[in-house]
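Hi everyone, sorry if this is the wrong subforum. Our group has a chain we'd like a structural model of before ordering constructs, and none of us has done structure prediction before. Sequence below.
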Amino acid sequence: QCFRALCCKGPPPPRPEYDLVCIGLTGSGKTSLLSQLCGESPENIVSTTGRMLPLFHGILQHSELGGGADSIRKYWSRYYQGSQGVIFVLDSASSEDDLETARNELHSALQHPQLCTLPFLILANHQDKPAARSVQEIKKYFELEPLARGKRWILKPCSLDDMEAVKDSFSLLINLLEERDFEPSRM
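Answer:
Right subforum, don't worry. Here is the predicted structure as tokens:
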């Protein structure tokens, strides 16, 4: 970029923008993680939709969808259109019932017609809690290997205490999104 600024006298090329949908049950940590990534104070956390999230070498626009009740989750699909990727946040230290609900919701998302071809970043949040399940336990419990075969997905552990791991996870997702941008069109 220094070379470009000194020699080319033009603005840098625009960074790509990606529209992502961030889904997960209430209490999984969606708002906290995204707010930390944006550099916002945790005291000022408010659930949002459509907030810009500048990050690394792309800009991620996300719609953040939560809601533990079936009455709210049934509306998630209204936000799927136009998405280029999915962030699914789950509470790895949740109760068995909540984990089962999260599993069902992830399965639904992976099979949804508007999402099934998109890259998924699955964040196993709250790894700092004593009851947190490991990534291997989650992968097995959620049956990710057989269910997501042929799909592009990443499962990563995370917590608010380790934002570098979260940033690394988002970098991996951006790489998947960029790979998709360069795939030749199939006719």
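For your construct planning: Residues 48-66 have pLDDT under 50 and may be disordered. The chain has seven helices and six strands.
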